[in-house]
Amino acid sequence: MQSSAAVADAAIAATTVTAAKSGPFLIVVCGGSASGKTMFAHLLKTRLNSERVFILSMDHFYRNFTEEEKKEILKEEFNFDSPDALDIDCAHDLIVKMKSGEAVNVPSYSFTKHAREAHTTLVPSMDIIIFEGILSLHDDRIVDMADKKVFVSADEDTRLNRRLTRDARERGRTEESTRAQHEKFVEPAYRAYIAPCANKLGTNGLLVENNEGQNLEPHVESLAKEIREEMKWRGVSL
Ligand SMILES: Nc1ncnc2c1ncn2[C@@H]1O[C@H](COP(=O)(O)OP(=O)(O)O)[C@@H](O)[C@H]1O
Ligand SMILES: Nc1ccn([C@@H]2O[C@H](COP(=O)(O)O)[C@@H](O)[C@H]2O)c(=O)n1
Q1: Residue 10 falls within a domain, yes or no?
Q2: pLDDT, tens digit (0-9, with 9 covering 90-100), for 171-182
Q3: pLDDT tens per residue, range 135-150
Q4: Which residue of 130, 178, 207, 209 is most buried, as measured by CB atoms within 10 A?
Q5: Which residues are registered as beta bridge partners of 129?
Q6: pTM to 2 decimals?
Q7: Is 17 in contact with 94 (CB distance < 8 Å)?
Q8: Residue 42, domain member (yes or no)
Q9: For residue 126, what is the domain's CATH number?
Q10: Is 27 in contact with 133 (CB distance < 8 Å)?
């Protein structure tokens, strides 16, 4: 039979776990540029079918650039794939607030102007936050806050081909500029900073292969089921 002290300790431990697990559920989706992170995040939001799911894109956290950096950007010599290009502290602080149930103002970034927009978006308290970005698992403070970690993996050719199409269509880029940027900055940063993040998934993380012809839906479906069960346990029905 357990002593009353042991029973009390177990009760305290259970309370601590409950407290740590309360609040909005944070899913962090990492992977190379054009691997399919945004697609995965949107499929998951659709599958969860709740107004209280918010996709927080790391793309909104590019820094304000100095005059010197702006000259480099014009010459296509700026490295947007280095962790230094992003205000990761700002993303971290915002996620801390969202995890504690606060409303936040999310910054906005323009890929055509390479600059922060003047406006921010007010986001109310959410039940589920999906944080997606190339370096979303780079900062260990964010890794530690994640309730679920996902790494979307695609081979280099697939990522480059998807990016060529997307950047021409949505980001006003030429094929030549996208190829040069890929070779000089995107792939080296993928190898140095992004691919190693897959090692941070831990036992409960999800590695999703998303090469040509592969389907994200089965992964999304099983993750949505897992999240629904967890949220039910937390007393939130989706
Ligand atoms: N499995 C897939 N099959 C076909 N196209 C895909 C697949 N996954 C992603 N894409 C396309 O590739 C492009 C990049 O995907 P996206 O989700 O925006 O990448 P990321 O957010 O990782 O940069 C988009 O045009 C998207 O529609
Ligand atoms: N002004 C900018 C800012 C970033 N990029 C590129 O965006 C990529 C990350 O966004 P994904 O949606 O593709 O994950 C990153 O690889 C940067 O090279 C840019 O081209 N211009």
Answers
A1: no
A2: 999 999 999 999
A3: 999 999 999 999 999 9
A4: 130
A5: 26, 54
A6: 0.92
A7: no
A8: yes
A9: 3.40.50.300
A10: no
Residue 93 belongs to a domain: yes
On whether the CB atoms of residues 143 and 41 are closer than 8 A, the answer is no
Measured from CB, residues less than 6 Å from any atom of ligand 2 are 33-34, 59, 62, 80-81, 111, 114, 134, 186
- For residue 175, how far is its CA from the centre of ligand 1 (angstroms)? 17
Domain ranges, residue 168: 24-233
184 burial type by CB count under 10 A (0-12 exposed, 13-18 middle, 19+ buried):
middle
**Residue type for position 221:** E
What are the Cα distances from residue 37, in Å, to 55, 63, 159, 230, 233?
A: 11, 21, 11, 22, 27
Ligand nearest to the CA of 213: 1
**Residue 173 domain-assigned (yes or no):** yes
- HSE, CB side, 13 Å, CA atoms: give it for residue 180: 9
Q: Ligand 1: which atom is nearest the Cα of residue 39?
A: 17
Number of domains in the chain: 1
Structure tokens at 119: 């406006």
CA of 174 to the centre of ligand 2 (A): 14
Ligand 1 atom nearest residue 35's Cα: 22
Q: How many Å lie between the centroid of ligand 1 and the Cα of residue 193?
A: 20
